[in-house]
Amino acid sequence: MLSVIQNPPRIALPIVGSSDFFPVRRVYCVGRNYAAHAREMGADPDREPPFFFMKPADALQIVGSEPAPHPYPPKTSNYHFEVELVAALAGGGSDLPVEGALDHVYGYAIGLDMTRRDLQDEAKKLSRPWDTGKAADSSGPIGALHPASLVGHPAQGPITLSVDGETRQKGDLGDMIWSVAEQVAYLSGYFTLQPGDLIFTGTPSGVGAVERGQRMVASIAGLGAITLDVV
């Protein structure tokens, strides 16, 4: 059987220390998973159940070791950065226990959940989905994947983002309200997780707007940094 159109390219992440690639299936994102960020967004940081939204896999922008041009999307005048640890799954299933959840994680990467904040805020007011705010083309910049066999399972350490050399976000992975293991387990109660799924695990406080011509550098302890020039 032949496709009636050209098959879309499969999104795949490069892997540190390997010539192999990690094919991406779904991209899940958790909201407000750092207490200080929850407060700056006007939410209660108490340990309420986490909530998730999704980005399409082809919204990922794969960033290598060199600075990459990042396109400023249309229909917004308030485009925000959110640096995040990304967990990539090599296993999955339904109703996974927290105790064994990390066994399903292949590795970790630096990611950004870029957000058309004005469109997201409008959607919130109208009780509409967040897709136009969260799922713009290239709205998920992501670096190379670091296998857990090499870096372990990062649970603490600095996570930062700078704009033109000025630190704008600075947090610690240990400040997550819900750990990576807890996120995997909770999410598996709603979806049957599969190899190839990514989870953007939340952002620390300090989110803000970026403009064309500015440079963003996102870094996480043990995973290095990625650099994006907004164009």
The H/E string reads EEEHEEEEEEEHHEEHEEHEEEE
Count of the separate structural domains: 1
**Low confidence ranges:** none
Strand ordering within the main sheet: 4-3-15-8-9-12
Discrete helix count = 5
Determine the fraction of residues in helical runs and give it as a percent range: 10-25%
The global form is globular
Structural class by secondary-structure content: alpha+beta
The Rg value, from CA coordinates, equals 17 Å
CATH architecture: Alpha-Beta Complex
Strand content: 25-35%
CATH homologous superfamily grouping: Fumarylacetoacetase-like, C-terminal domain
Main β-sheet description: 6 strands, mixed
Give a count of the beta strands, DSSP E runs of length 2 or more. Answer: 18
The CATH topology is what?
A: Fumarylacetoacetate hydrolase, domain 2
Distance between the termini: 41 Å
CATH class: Alpha Beta
Mean pLDDT across residues: 95
